[in-house]
Amino acid sequence: MKWQWRSEGDKFLNGAFFTESGPPIKQIKAPLKRNLINFKPGSYAGRLTRFSGALKCYVGRPC
């Protein structure tokens, strides 16, 4: 599955931005609930990104 990232009605402050990806979504029916990320307020940012960061990748091995 190739992800399509969209922003709908989000508010960005202090130079924050979001780049949508993939082709326009042409799906008419509602997407499957398992493919959606529920809205969380900005106060959740630390919890939602706590495991983010650079990957430990090595030449010649899967990342």
Automatic annotation (TrEMBL):
Alphabetically ordered keywords of this record: Lyase, Signal
InterPro entries linked to this entry: AmbAllergen
Top-level taxon: Eukaryota
GO molecular-function term, one example from the UniProt record: lyase activity
Protein's UniProt name: Pectate lyase-like
Presence of keyword Lyase: yes
Gene source species: Dorcoceras hygrometricum
